[in-house]
Amino acid sequence: MSDRQKYIRNFAIIAHIDHGKSTLADRIMEMTNTVSERDTAAQLLDDLAVEKAHGVTVKSRTVRNYYVDDRGDEYQYNLIDTPGHVDFNYEVSRSLSATDGVLLLVDATKGVQAQTVANYRLAKEANLTIIPIVNKIDNLMADVDKTVEEILGLDDSFTEEEILKISAKSGLGVDAVLTAIRDRIPAPTGDETAPLKALVFDSKFDPYKGVIALVRLFEGTLNTTDQMLFMAADLTSQNKEVGVFAPFTTPLAKLQAGDVGYIVTGIKDAHAIRVGETITSVAQPTPAAFPGYQMVQPMVYAGLYPRGTDYKDLKIAIEKLALNDAAFQYEPEQSEALGMGFRGGFLGIFHLQIIRERLQDEFGLDILTTMPNSTFRVTLKQKDEMVMVENPTQFPHFAQIAKVEEPYVHAKMTLPNDMLNDVMRLAEGRRGVLEDLDTLGSMLMVTYKMPVSEIAYDFFNELKSVSHGFATLSTEIADFEASDMVRMDIAIDYANVDALTFVLHRFKVEKFAQDTVTKLRDLVPRKLQQMPVQAIVEGRVVARENIPPLRKMAAKGTKVSKKQEQLRRAGQAKSDIELPQEVFDAILDMGN
After folding, report:
1. Which annotated residues bind GTP (predicted)?
2. Counts for the chain of helices (H) and strands (E), in that order
3. With 90 as the cut, is the pLDDT of residue 186 above it?
């Protein structure tokens, strides 16, 4: 360890959603004079419009702070702010790889919650130093003693004396946090003269500068004039600029082992650099790359189509978003009803909502989002062939299917004792199977094995509703299991609408079909003639409603020809119905 590294601390703040991460980050930047009074703003690190609108952190951010302690020594505090919502666990795990310790923040009015436990486990698995902190101690609803007891229940190695008690909003006790970072979090190690070895833990795209990689240097030194090698992509690039966020971009002459900063690569290909990439020097490469990150598996799929905007504009916007969000996956697809668009893979329904809002707010696009669905594994009768189905329109004909399997998750819910019955009733109504019931201080942790298709839509909101906001949810991917899943097609005026194709469990078909055709009857734009809306499962119509005509009597010459009607009844005609976003929103609101 060099003399310079002794004064560096790399740390992250982890917590459940709305426990005060961004507020504590603001106080730390204030108390280290990182930002001037003029530039100070609430949620300074939450620079996305959706983050401020929802009050949550979606993207990880890094900032360098300079802390002068009571001895007069100046320390470099590299802070990484992480998300707290269950959908953004991947952002937390990526951020932790660039740190040496974490501040585990717990709200004194809410106590230890599901995401607190999930984030604590991530930090523990990464062998990081953990500093437990109780926040909002000046709130009238705070129960500090109970919260301390719950934190002690998380880890036997915690002692009551090392748990810090603060109010991030007022700044009370934050000075003790700054001291604890200096005293408890280890300084980085790494040989500054060794071959360069840097880890890309995030990236973003600038239309003028190209890909900007956020990196942690573990070995060596990176100068502004160095030629870099991206080992996984086998790509070389001339370095354009290096620097740090303080909190705004601050160019430097070089970055050294232990530093966290950014590199302007000048690479214009948005997909060239992946998170988990190892950067080294062309002149003196490192012998071994980092193992990298596992690819994130999307839980929910939905179609994204331009509505009133150009397909090319949507394509460019999605490419740029995918660079900033490693978990968002997409591929082009074409729908007869909606035209050219994309099939997107998301971590959950909240992730889908964030992507949709970012496309609208950051790129000014008017887009249409179809009903989300999960992935299915289908075994065909012919030669026992297995296919993965991400789009309901690809679901095979029922006569060809030998077995259908769907993905399951372990859903861990933390809740007060008196709400157990309501939560169990909700989970079992969504085909959940109880796996474990454990106590966590004064709370219960209930673990259910549940299908992704049942929790992807509105389960989180339902859980909040039945528990009056007290219960919390975290999920871990389990495995595929056999289920009696069927495909439901919707035909409007005897023509199948591919954007309204669903895969659902057989016992839910009847109610969902009737609810769907009733909604469509009221929301699909009317025409001069009456149009039937049918829900079809395995060749059988299971529900039907009629969309009334614009007038009681059709105008002369508007009657559908006999040939056209025969084509539609045979399912060979293309649908010419224009579906508004309200149709998909209404079906989504029905739940499953």
Report:
1. 18-23, 135-138
2. 14, 30
3. yes
Cα–Cα distance between 229 and 285 in angstroms, integer?
8
Tell me, what's the pLDDT at 137? Answer: 93
In the chain, the domains with their CATH numbers are 5-184 (3.40.50.300), 197-281 (2.40.30.10), 300-369 (3.30.70.870), 376-483 (3.30.70.240), 486-590 (3.30.70.2570)
Q: What are phi and psi of 454, to 5 degrees?
A: -85, -25
- Pick out the residues of the known binding site for GTP: 18-23, 135-138
pLDDT band at 464; cut points 50, 70, 90:
confident
The contacts of residue 126 (CB under 8 Å, 6+ apart) are 96, 97
Q: Can you list the positions of beta strands (E) in 443-563?
A: 443-451, 472-482, 485-492, 495-505, 531-537, 540-547
Q: Which residues are annotated as a binding site?
A: 18-23, 135-138
Structure tokens at 580: 């508004």
Pairing of strands 8-15, 101-107: parallel
Kindly tell me if the per-residue pLDDT of 47 is higher than 50: no
Nearest CA to 204 among 58, 87, 305?
A: 58
Q: Which residues contact 343 (CB under 8 A, 6 or more apart)?
A: 301, 302, 303, 304, 330, 331, 332, 333, 390, 391
> What's the average model confidence in pLDDT over 90-102?
78
Separation between Cα atoms, residue 75 and residue 61, nearest integer Å: 20
Alpha carbons 40 and 174: distance in angstroms, whole number: 17
Average pLDDT over residues 553-570: 56
The token pair at 45 is 């690190």
Q: What is the pLDDT of residue 59?
A: 40
Give the integer Cα–Cα distance in Å for 258 and 218: 6
166: nearest Cα among 155, 178, 177: 177
Q: Which among 177, 99, 102 has a CA at the least distance from the CA of 135?
A: 177
Least confident range from 153-157, 194-198, 515-519, 539-543: namely 153-157
Contact yes or no for 377/403 (Cβ under 8 A): no
Kindly tell me if the per-residue pLDDT of 444 is higher than 50: yes
